[in-house]
Every structure is written in C-alpha cells, then in structure tokens.
Automatic annotation (TrEMBL):
Gene3D superfamilies: Tetratricopeptide repeat domain (1.25.40.10). It holds the Pfam family PPR_3. The lineage of its organism: Eukaryota, Fungi, Dikarya, Ascomycota, Taphrinomycotina. PPR repeats lie at residues 384-418. This is Pentatricopeptide repeat-containing protein, mitochondrial. PANTHER family: PENTATRICOPEPTIDE REPEAT-CONTAINING PROTEIN (PTHR47942:SF63), TETRATRICOPEPTIDE REPEAT (TPR)-LIKE SUPERFAMILY PROTEIN-RELATED (PTHR47942). GO terms for cellular component: mitochondrion. Keywords: Repeat.
Length: 641
C-alpha cells in the first residue's frame, strides 16, 4: 500500500524539523514535506485481511456442529477470536454454551482457565448454568485461587430449579478439607447424607486423608467405617489411597486391615501396594519360616506379581535382619543370573549384610568396587551416598583412617557429595584420635560445602571443646571459644537439640571458666529451644558456678539453694539412678522454676569479678538472638536483688 496523501508528510517531518518544536513546523514545511512524500512514496506493512464478525460467527457455528474428536482446538480458537472482538459473542445462547461445556468435559484434563472464561461469558450474557456447569465453575475458581468466590457460590446453593447431586456436595467437601476446615467438611457430608443422595468414596476420602495428616486416628477410623457402610462398591484406587494415608500417618496395623478389606472385596491389589504390605509384615517375622510363609501368601494373592525392585529389596533386607545372609545371597545371585537390572538399593543391602551379619569386609569391598567401576549403563548400578556411608562407618569403627580418606577421594571423583552422616562419622573419627585440629577443619568444611549440620554434629563439637578444656596439654590456640560455637549453633536452622546435649555445653563453659556463658546457655535452653531444665542440668550449673566463686560458704549456700529448688538431695540421687536405668517413669517430679534458678545463678555470678561481664554478654545475646529472647528488665531486677 503506497501513500501519496498529504498525511504521509508526517513521516518525513523528523528530517525537516529534528527538534520537533511546533515553532519550526510551518505551512511551507508541510507543503515541502508533502511534495517530498509524493516524490518518494513510503511503503507501509500490509495488515492481515479482517474477517467480518458475521463470517467468523458462521464458521464458529459450523465447527460447533462437528463431533468433538474433529474440533482439534480450532473451534475454541474461533471462540477466543470472537471474545476478543467487542460484542463478538452477543449471539451466544445456552445451546452454544452447552456445546462448549461438552468439549471441556470431553478433554482428558480440564483447564480451569477455559472454564473460568466460559463461565464469565455466561454470566455476562445472563445465560443460566446447569448443575454440572456450576460444579465445574466452583472447582475452577478454587484451583485459580479465588477461594472466597468459590465458597460464596457454593453457599448460595445449586442453580434455581435443580437439586444438588453427589458430585456437587463432593466439591464442597474437598474444598473445606483442603483448607483443613474439617468441621464444615463434616457438615457438608451430613447434608449429603440427609438428602438421600448416594455418597461415593470421594465423599469420605478427603476427610480420612486429612485426619491422617493431623494424626487423628479415631476420626480417620470412624470416617473409614462410615465409607464402608455407606458405599457398597469401593474401587481399588480409593482403597489404596486410604491404605497409603494410614501408612504415611504411622498406622501400619490399620493399613493392614484396609489391605484385608481389599482382598475381601475380591480386588487384586497393585504391585506397589503388595510390596509395601509385604515389607510391613516381613518386619514382624521372627524367623525364616514365618518369612517364607509370608512370601507364599503374597504370591498367592497376586499371581501376576512381576519383578518389583522394592519387593525383592524387602526380601533381602529382612533375610539380613534375621541373620540369614546365605538366603539373601541366593536371592541376589538369582536376580543377577536372571539378567534383571538391579538397583543400587539391592547392592547396598548386600554390602550392609556383609558388614553387619558376616563381618566380611573383603566381600563388601569387592562388591563396592564393582559399583565404583560402573558407568550406569550395564547390569551393575552406580553407588550412591548410602554405599559410602556404610563403608565409612565400618572403617571408622575399626580405626582405619587411611581407608576413610581413600573413600572420600573416590566419592569426589564420582561427583558424589558427602552427606551429614558421613561428615559426622569423620568428626567422630577425629574425636577418637584426639586430633582437634583436623576435627575443626572438618567441622568448618561442612559449612563451606553446604552440608547440613544437625544436633549430633554440634553434640560432638561440644564434646571436643569439653575434652579440650580438661586436657592436660594446651591445644587451646587450635580451637575456638565456646561463645562462637554457641552462636553458630543458634544460627543453624531446624536444629532440635536434646536436653542432655546441654549438659556437655555447660561442662564446656565451666571448663573454660566462663560462668557468664553458662547463663547464656541456660537462657537459650529455656527461651530459644523451649527445653525444660531438669535436675541434672540444674545441678551441673549450680555446682559449677558455685565452685568457681568460693570453696567455702558460697559452695554450701549453692547446695542449700539447690536443695530448696529441687527437693531432697536423696531424691536427686534416686532420680539419677533411675535415669541411668532408663526408667524415667520412676523418677520423682522435679519441675524447676526458671526464674528461681536464674536468681540463684545471678547470685553466684554477682559475687565474682564477672558480674558486669555476664550482664553485658546477656544484653549482646538478646540483640543477636531476637528482641523477645531474654527479658533484660527482669534480669536487672534479679541481679539487683
């Protein structure tokens, strides 16, 4: 399309008046620009021919009459083009919407976006919804995050002139259950049962699964019993979903009852379900005969039981557990000779059996070397971090550090990153060999390599500090102060220390002659980790700090104060004996008031030269650990009392 009109002069104005200032654009300039445009025509890009809305609508109606298998998204594309035109869908009727909804329901996976667009068009042109359409619209709104709108439509009830069906109620139950609003979900289920509609397994499954997630075994069992009584025919998928929900919640015995219900309903469970149930029942077998009988029973239940890696892994693992290593090797070699591709877990089970049952390290090393040489394409799989973990543990327990370092190098060459378990075993090795320098190098390397440090890691670190503090030789310059380690421990996320670990923490601070550090550790134990200070930890703190102040009056005063807090010292000794016998239920109740113990600790610290230092450290700890961590005002009042 070539322009010879005067408006084409606007295209050459930037060359005539670069500043585009209106002062320079005169009549003569426009005339000259028009002449220039006529002399040198400007070629503009051609636009696609516009299809009139009427013709587009006719094509759309023609496509609507075709079977759904011939649509191939072309009809929906025509609908989107009409929707983009102003008033392009003004002739939309309920018949057209019925066809479009039918196409959406015909798809293997429904698109919430398509449902949302079509429903909005119906609302715009005031086309009434059917019950099925409204149910799909509520589901789409919930999937798109418009939960309030979905709940509002559901609360308003079904469309006028229709009665709610089971599917409509099930959508309401699922929405409330996903939001953990199980009370309203139960109410919707009661409405479903009161209408006389036949519930399905999907009416109860959201409740069962969420009760399992909340560890509410009684309510989950009640919902499962109601499902069995209300639904005469439950499909296999529903049974298996309920079974795995009970398994994941930690109720394997209930899952076994669900498995029996599957068999009673003359259904054949899947291979995965059978493998999981076999693994659960095999762990309860006490001897080889029970294990073999269980295998025969499982194979009779599912005669189409094909090769399942998890099943055979469970067989070999339980044979090793029963010290039947010879039978485990028979299964392992039989699978290898049958040209079955074994996974890493099968090799790991046999390596673990060699180490724990037969104590045969050469055989375990030989099998591991085959895995080290594998490229993953043959019958032998490549090793994983668990393979190295078992070998490292055996070498550490048998004090063979050279083999440990060789394994670490092999891991690096294979591109396998050590995990927390292997790093902890290395720390344990250095603690055994009393090599504090290597210990702290390994400890720092964990952070550099982004290996998660857990409570066991810090437990060994505090043990190393404690042993260093009381060691005869002076290696203090090679380690760190307990204050820095304690701050690092507080900064580590998801750490769940045991109260017994703080016994070593207190000992380490006392070994470094740091009673103020004891106070900080005590505050962290109570305020940060929400642990209850029992008599063992309290006695260590009081005796330690009292012993630093004065061997005479203050020491005995501390014991008397400890007696008033914890009760009779004879009861403490009895409780200590009960603790070592691992029968805490026989221990007397010795609840300790944290404020009373804090007053006692400040009393001891105040009578040392470290009183001001302790208060300053607590203020710094409060600033570093959070505003609500340590109540400074209460501490000041306590120190002044």
């Amino acid at each position: 399309m070539v322009l010879h009109q005067p408006r084409a002069a606007l295209l050459v104005l930037p060359f005539l008046a670069p500043s585009l200032d209106p002062v320079f654009i005169t009549t003569r300039t426009l005339h000259f620009a028009t002449v220039l445009a006529a002399a040198r025509p400007v070629q503009l890009p051609l636009r696609a021919p516009q299809v009139p809305p009427g013709a587009l609508w006719l094509r759309f109606e023609q496509k609507l009459n075709l079977p759904y298998r011939l649509w191939k998204h072309e009809t929906w594309n025509l609908y989107n083009r009409l929707r983009a035109i102003p008033n392009g869908l003004c002739r939309l009727t309920a018949k057209h919407c019925h066809k479009l909804w039918g196409y959406i329901f015909h798809l293997p996976q429904r698109s919430p976006g398509q449902i949302f667009e079509l429903a909005n068009a119906q609302i715009k042109f005031r086309i009434p919804f059917s019950l099925q359409q409204q149910t799909a619209y509520i589901e789409a709104l919930y999937c798109l995050g418009k939960k309030n709108h979905a709940y509002q439509i559901f609360a308003n009830g079904p469309p006028p002139g229709t009665l709610p069906d089971t599917r409509w109620f099930n959508v309401g139950i699922q929405m409330h259950a996903k939001d953990r609003d199980l009370l309203n979900a139960e109410q919707v289920l009661q409405r479903l049962l009161s209408t006389g509609a036949a519930p399905t397994s999907f009416s109860f499954m959201p409740l069962i699964m969420n009760y399992c997630l909340l560890k509410n075994k009684d309510r989950a069992l009640l919902s499962y019993s109601r499902m069995k009584s209300a639904c005469p025919e439950i499909d296999l998928q529903s049974y298996e979903a309920v079974l795995f929900s009970f398994f994941e919640a930690g109720y394997p015995s209930i899952a076994a009852r669900v498995y029996d219900d599957i068999l009673a309903a003359s259904l054949t469970p899947s291979t995965l379900t059978t493998s999981v149930m076999y693994d659960h029942l095999a762990k309860r077998a006490n001897n080889l005969t029970e294990l073999l009988n269980l295998g025969v029973r499982i194979n009779n239940i599912n005669r189409e039981f094909a090769f399942d890696p998890f099943y055979y892994a469970s067989v070999m693992a339980n044979l090793c557990r029963l010290n039947e290593m010879d039978y485990a090797l028979v299964v392992f070699k039989g699978l290898r000779n049958a040209d079955e591709k074994l996974d890493t877990i099968h090799y790991n089970i046999i390596i673990g059996g060699y180490l724990k049952v037969n104590n045969d390290m050469p055989a375990a090393e030989s099998l591991a070397q085959d895995m080290f040489k594998s490229d993953g394409t043959g019958k032998v799989p490549q090793p994983d971090v668990s393979t190295f973990g078992m070998l490292v543990q055996w070498y550490v327990d048998n004090d063979q550090p050279t083999k440990v370092f060789s394994l670490i190098q092999t891991m690096k060459s294979l591109g396998i990153k050590p995990n927390t378990y292997i790093a902890n075993m290395l720390l344990h090795l250095w603690n055994i060999r009393r090599n504090r320098i290597k210990f702290w190098e390994t400890f720092d390397e964990m952070k550099l390599q982004e290996i998660q440090q857990d409570a066991h890691t810090f437990g060994m670190a505090w043990l190393s500090l404690y042993l260093t503090a009381y060691a005869k030789r002076d290696v203090m310059q090679h380690v760190r102060h307990p204050r820095g380690l304690f701050r690092q421990m507080l900064e580590t996320p998801n750490l769940d220390p045991h109260v017994r670990m703080f016994d070593i923490v207190i000992k380490a601070f006392l070994g470094y002659k740091d009673p103020a550090g004891c106070l900080i550790a005590y505050e962290a134990m109570i305020r940060h980790y929400k642990l209850q200070c029992d008599w063992i930890t309290a006695e260590k703190i009081v005796r330690g700090i009292a012993g630093m102040t004065d061997e005479g009056a203050w020491y005995h005063s501390g014991l008397l104060k400890l007696k008033s807090i914890l009760g009779d010292l004879n009861e403490i000794k009895l409780a200590r004996g009960a603790f070592h016998q691992k029968s805490p239920e026989t221990s007397p109740q010795t609840d300790i008031d944290p404020d009373d113990l804090r007053k006692l600790l400040f009393k001891f610290v105040r009578n040392t030269k470290l009183a001001s230092t302790a208060r300053k450290d607590l203020v710094e700890a409060r600033e570093a650990m959070g505003a609500n961590y340590i109540p400074i005002d209460a501490l000041k009042n306590t120190a002044a009392s």
